[in-house]
Amino acid sequence: MATITGYDRWYAQKVVAVDIKGYIAQQRDNYLAGKLSDDDLRKSFDRLEAVITSIPKNRVVIMGDAVVRNAETVKP
Question: Which whole-number Å values give the CA distances from 62 to 5, 12, 36, 38, 68, in the listed order?
Fold first, then answer.
């Protein structure tokens, strides 16, 4: 049982969706509405990059638009 659990946790490929398009649209709307400064916008994109690069290697990352159901979705 421990072997199967360890394999599933650290080696088995899993699909993860990232809603990049929605995040960028939200940040654009906030920037145009004056809710974000230039520096805040840069920080939000740095945070998006950090979230994407922190996803483990055994996860397959796809765009959030491609997901219909039953996939883990990462939101920055």
Answer: 24, 16, 28, 28, 12
Structure tokens at 11: 């080696």
Strand partners, 1: none
pTM of the predicted structure, to 2 decimals = 0.75
β-strands 72-74, 14-18: how paired? parallel
pLDDT in tens, the chain (76 residues): 999 999 998 899 999 999 899 899 999 999 999 999 999 999 999 999 999 999 998 999 998 888 877 788 887 7
Residue 55, class by beta-carbon neighbours within 10 Å (0-12 exposed, 13-18 middle, 19+ buried)?
A: middle
